[in-house]
């Protein structure tokens, strides 16, 4: 089970929430989501609370996002090149989605930083959905939580791979 934590802007577009959901069982933790607009085109920015890995997708059928989350997560982590067992386990954990409000200001602040960076990673010419993968890769290389000591800095790509492989390899062994 995974918790989709939406900003107020996105919560209005999603089905009603029923109380505060339990913690996510997925390795990447809760997924935070916000709707942003770049070049007059609406996008969804999703960020993993545990790794700060970002997904950038066209904001179509936002109401159906809980049903589409597993597909979005699968596409994103597939490009990380992790082992198949961890990929399958994370996607399965992402199929059951509960909706909640944002609770971690650190993650929402990171989403603001990512949203400001996205236009700089897109080409100046007309851009399409294929360019969004390039944006995701650049965001995955962005140091997060860099205001403190170096040991607290998160690099989303490396952190996501480490979390996925350690979380799901433990579960397979037990």
UniProtKB/TrEMBL annotation:
Tell me what organism the protein belongs to. Povalibacter uvarum
Top-level lineage group: Bacteria
InterPro entries reported for this sequence: DUF6933
Domain (DUF6933): give its ranges: 4-158
What is the protein named? DUF6933 domain-containing protein
